[in-house]
Amino acid sequence: MGLGLTTYDCTETQFVENLRKLLEVRPHIIANRLLVNHDDGRYGLAYLPDPIFEKYGRLAKRDGSRSPVRAAIPFIEDRTGRLYESGATVCIGRGGRPGGVSAPYTRVEYSFTIWGDTYRYVFDALFEPEIRLEKRVPRFHAPKYRAKEVPLVHVLRFRPPDEESMKLDLPSAVLTFDVRRRLSPLP
Amino acid sequence: MLTYLPASKVRSQIQDLGFQLVAEATVVSDGKFWSKSVYASRGETVTVSDELGAVTYLRDPVITVFGRMQTVDKIAAFLESHQP
What we know:
The complex is a heterodimer. Chain A is mostly beta strands. Chain A contains 2 helices and 12 strands. Chain A has one domain (about 5-180). Chain A has helices spanning about 10-25, 50-55; strands at about 5-10, 30-45, 60, 70, 75, 80-85, 90, 100-115, 115-125, 130-135, 150-160, 175-180. Chain B is built from 2 helices and 4 strands; from the N terminus they run αββββα. The interface of A and B includes residues 11, 122, 162 and 166 of A.
């Protein structure tokens, strides 16, 4: 406890307000911004709210949030190259095994450290789906196809979120440093 | 959608103030999904975040302004004029 290395989570409002209070007593503050891409199945299609799931509506259908998601038409997921036939399970809902199609995301962490304690604001920005019709051979099916028989199929790709949407506008007295990763403090 | 003031109205008002849409994203913060729109004009930034999902309570979009007091006042005046 002597080192005082506690990390406190803040909401966006708390984080900005804490910085404002600090600027009343300090001319400059250094804030760190850490962006890390994840693709760990955290935001499976079964768990997305309806307005977001609608973006996948051309490819998949479900009865409601947390219900199993099934392919409406055959499509290939670009990252894995896997082909989902019409009616195949794309993502299992509540109580199911992890896996299936999920939206990758960028975890954005803003933080500053004062008197040994770190205050941070963390949020996830989801990748946006892009659906295109392409000539594409599904992975593991390549030997079946000759070059002229390559089928036309829907392909699901993901586009990283816009930089602007991951930016927190802070006063010029707050110097924002982009960092690659956070290391544990030295013993 | 249970809202006092729909996010679409707020977004259109911000565009009427001369702001341009520069980014849209789905953001997850505090365990909630948000549709986030970022508007910019002359070095000022306004973000409008609307909660998504099975929301069963009345709520308003969250508006964040990084700009002049004049802009804040204009947005505040619009919100006050639409209070229930």
